[in-house]
Amino acid sequence: RRDVGRITTGSKNVDELIGGGIETQSITEVFGEFGSGKSQISHELAVTVQLPKERGGLEGECVFIDTENTFRPERIEQIADACGIDREEALQRIHIARAFNSSHQILMAEKINELIQSGVNVRLVIVDSLMAHFRAEYVGRESLATRQQKLNQHLHALQQIANTYNVAVFLTNQVQARPDAFFGSPTKAIGGHVLGHASTYRIWLKKGLAGKRIARLVDSPHLPEGEAVFKVTTDGIVD
Ligand code: ADP
Q1: Angle at which helices 102-117 and 144-165 pack, to 10 degrees?
Q2: CA separation for the pair 83, 41 (Å, rounded)
Q3: Which family does the UniProt entry place this protein in (predicted)?
Q4: Binding site members
């Protein structure tokens, strides 16, 4: 693949785990229970993508598809301060798309093509969270096939944007904590098969002791499985 770019997560440990930061032309999925840090990493990446290359960014802009009203401008301001970039400029380079339901979410993703064609230098698309609307709207066994078909359509659109415009796609996915978490098969826990195949990188987040978080890379085709420890601080994500 040509010119793959990488965006720092803010944590050197996590960057190393995934081969140097989240990749363009790929889909990276983070999953974990409520409060495990998924939205925090999303906010961090929305800022770090704007940094120059030597600091782990792509000098680019971000589309943030927000499905659960988790986007916090004041959090972006804190992270921008820590990165030494202007708050207002940082916010202007984040294009917020609030998705009211799954159809709207699908449409928002497809519209990114137009935004890029209009000249906006989008290098990162975040969907926080991917499955919330789909889960709420398609309840019960009989609707599972439709849900997976819609989800598939959505993921294909995201992958197409990633490939066509050399963009990184970052998805968050909430899962229930399980007693065998980290040792069982993660694929059973989430989004079914469609998601399992679409994500190039899948990272399992878990709360550790003393405010620490643990990231575990799972199902990676060409990187070893492993874990990295990081923290969420006022300044953002750090080792
Ligand atoms: P989720 O995985 O549900 O998206 P979040 O990414 O929202 O979880 O993580 C929430 C956690 O992040 C909080 O419980 C807190 O520990 C931490 N956090 C959020 N904001 C800050 C902050 N400004 N300073 C330090 N820690 C924070």
Answers
A1: 10
A2: 14
A3: Belongs to the eukaryotic RecA-like protein family.
A4: 32-39
| Pick from 110, 113, 109: nearest CA to 128 | 109
> Whose structure tokens read 């059973």?
188
Of 40, 81, 190, the one to substitute when testing ligand 1's pocket (max ligand atoms within 8 A of C-beta) is 40
Q: What ipTM, to 2 d.p.?
A: 0.98
Ligand 1 mutation pick, 45, 77, 232, 237, max ligand atoms within 8 A of CB: 232
Express each pLDDT in 27-62 by its tens digit. Answer: 999 999 999 999 999 999 999 999 999 999 999 999
Minimum-distance ligand 1 atom for the alpha carbon of 36: 2
CA of residue 232 to ligand 1 center, whole Å: 6
- State how far the Cα of 206 lies from the Cα of 8, in Å rounded to an integer: 19
Q: Which positions make up the binding site for ATP?
A: 32-39
Q: In what order do the strands lie in the sheet with 94-98?
A: 94-98, 61-66, 122-128, 168-174, 27-32, 201-207, 212-218, 226-233, 236-238
